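User: Second chain of the day. Same drill as before.
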Amino acid sequence: MSTEVRPTVPSPPALLRLLPAGSYAGRSHALLLRSATASRRAWLAFVSGFFEPVFYLVAMGQGLGSMVGALPGPDGTPISYAAFIAPGLLAASAMNGAVFDSTFNVFFKLKYGKLYDAMLATPLGPVDIALGEIGWALIRGGLYALGFLSVMAGFGLLMSPWALLALPAALVVAFAFAAVGMAATSFMRSWQDFDLVTLVILPMFLFSTTFYPLSVYPRWLQIVVECLPLYHAVELMRGLTTGAVHVGMLGHLGYFLVMIAFGVTLAARRLDALLLR
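Assistant: Same format as last time:
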């Protein structure tokens, strides 16, 4: 009596099991190519965001820094004010590039351009669209970070070989903010709702130890700041660029891995509900 041996089907990765079934065709790269082609005509708007942190670095680091003097680095070693704020501006560059591309641009395509409705007539699914847009926002944030890293190198603000890992870390940060940004955009109803984006981004930029050490705040505000995602990005970048690397930085990295999993899952499910309802 013969027994039939059935081949075992490997189970998909855990994250893919959380995504809507039947909505992924494995063609999210097509959306990356489309975004890259469209950006050729809007290159000025694409690169303009790179200059904002450079202006902050020159004005605050070189101008105000001459009056502030040295500040304690992550390991307690005194560093210049420019070297202190530069990693924070690097983290903000990755955040801004990812957030503004995954919010304003995605909202226009979703609500007014109806671009995603047309894409569903192709082999693309809602999950492909979500991953493609998040991937493009990640690339934009990564390019901003790469440009600012070059400026930091020109000013002599990369003080350790560990700074080579700052770009991969910036990509993780950009990925996390892009995923959460797109998930938040799926709940937006009008352009007025984007005031909430500014309301979140601006205070986070100012308070997340970008310009001041955490110790200047009262303890209750320190706890609030330590919960902010940009704080973890700043601490990660500051440790890498100054060479103050320690095992606790894995906690900062884990924070963003949770953000990525949450943001991708929510964005994919929301797009699946909005586009296929």
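The chain has one domain: 30-35+44-275.

User: Great, on to the next one.
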